[in-house]
C-alpha cells in the first residue's frame, strides 16, 4: 500500500498554471506543474459514484456537443452543398452553397433552441484549424449569429432531430438584413450574387466568392 500524503493544489488565476504540492509524513515535499486539462480529467475520473451523464442520441452529422449547467450546444455539419433559397418573392431551388457548420444553443429542460449560429468552412475533413470564411448571404451577423426575425423555431423534445433545423433555417425567406458586399469577392449586391451563382458549382465559392474571416473552426466552436 502506498504511503499516504497531503496534497495541495495551487492555481495561478493570472497564468492559469496549476501547481500540485505533495507533503509526505517524512517531511519530503514534491511539486509539479500540470495542465488545467489534466486537473479536470483527474476530477472527472476520480468520482466514486456511478452517476452517468449521457447526451442521448446525437443529431446526424453532429461534430461536437458541449454540455453546460443550463444549455447544451450542438454543432452540426450541414450534409448538403445545396439548399432551397428564397429571396423576397424569388425561389432558387437546389441553390449551390458552400460547406456550412451550424451551432444550436439548446435548453434540455424546455426542449427549445435559444440561439442559432452558422459558419462557412473550407470543404475538407473538419479539423480545429479548418479555415472559416465570411457568410456570403444575409440574415447572419458578422459573429455568425443567425437573425431569425419573427420566425418561430420548432420545439425539439428529441435533440437527435436537431439536424433538421439547419435546412428549416435555410428555407426561411431571405431579405437584405445583415447583407454586405464586403462578404464576397465579387463585390456583388445580393440578387446579383444569387443570379451569378445559381448555375455554378459549390467549388466556385472557394475560387471566386468567399472572403476569409481570419478565424478557424475552433473559434466558432468556442463561441457562446
What does this protein structure show overall?
Helices cover 17% and strands 33% of the residues. It contains 5 helices and 11 strands. The protein has 224 residues and is of the alpha+beta class. Strand 2 and strand 3 form a beta hairpin.
Largest sheet strand order: 4-5-8-9-10-11
Counted beta strands? 11
The unreliable regions are: none
Helicity, as a percent range: 10-25%
Oligomer: single chain
Would you tell me the overall average pLDDT? 89
Structural class: alpha+beta
The major sheet is characterized as: 6 strands, antiparallel
Distance between the termini: 46 Å
- Rg is 23 Å
**Fraction in beta strands:** 25-35%
General shape: elongated
Provide key terms for this protein.
224 residues; alpha+beta; six-stranded antiparallel beta sheet; 5 helices; 33% strand
Give me a quick take on this structure.
The protein is an alpha+beta fold and 224 residues long. The chain contains five helices and eleven strands; from the N terminus they run βββαβββββββαααβα.
Compile the SSE list and pairings.
Elements: E1 5-12, E2 17-24, E3 29-34, H1 36-45, E4 62-67, E5 72-77, E6 82-87, E7 90-96, E8 100-107, E9 112-121, E10 131-133, H2 163-170, H3 190-197, H4 203-209, E11 212-216, H5 217-221
Antiparallel strand pairs: 1-2, 2-3, 4-5, 5-8, 6-7, 8-9, 9-10, 10-11
Amino acid at each position: 500500500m502506498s504511503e499516504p500524503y497531503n496534497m495541495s493544489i495551487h492555481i495561478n488565476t493570472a497564468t492559469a498554471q496549476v501547481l500540485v504540492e505533495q507533503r509526505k509524513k517524512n517531511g519530503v515535499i514534491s511539486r509539479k506543474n500540470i495542465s488545467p486539462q489534466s486537473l479536470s480529467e483527474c476530477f472527472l475520473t476520480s468520482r466514486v459514484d456511478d452517476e452517468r451523464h449521457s447526451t442521448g442520441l446525437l443529431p446526424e452529422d453532429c461534430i461536437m456537443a458541449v454540455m453546460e449547467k443550463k444549455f447544451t450546444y450542438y454543432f452540426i455539419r450541414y450534409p448538403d452543398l445545396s439548399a432551397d433559397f428564397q429571396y423576397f418573392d424569388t425561389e432558387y431551388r437546389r441553390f449551390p452553397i458552400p460547406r456550412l457548420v451550424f451551432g444550436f444553443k439548446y435548453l434540455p429542460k424546455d426542449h427549445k433552441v435559444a440561439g442559432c449560429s452558422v459558419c462557412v468552412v473550407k470543404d475538407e475533413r473538419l479539423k480545429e484549424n479548418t479555415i472559416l470564411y465570411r457568410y456570403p448571404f444575409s440574415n447572419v451577423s458578422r459573429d455568425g449569429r443567425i437573425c431569425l426575425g419573427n420566425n418561430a423555431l420548432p420545439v425539439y423534445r428529441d435533440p437527435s432531430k436537431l439536424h433538421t433545423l439547419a435546412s428549416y433555417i435555410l428555407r426561411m425567406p431571405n431579405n437584405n438584413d445583415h447583407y454586405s458586399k464586403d462578404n464576397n469577392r465579387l463585390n456583388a449586391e445580393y440578387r446579383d450574387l444569387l443570379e451569378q451563382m445559381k448555375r455554378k458549382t459549390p467549388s466556385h465559392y472557394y475560387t471566386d466568392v468567399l472572403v476569409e474571416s481570419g478565424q478557424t473552426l475552433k473559434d466558432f466552436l468556442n463561441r457562446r
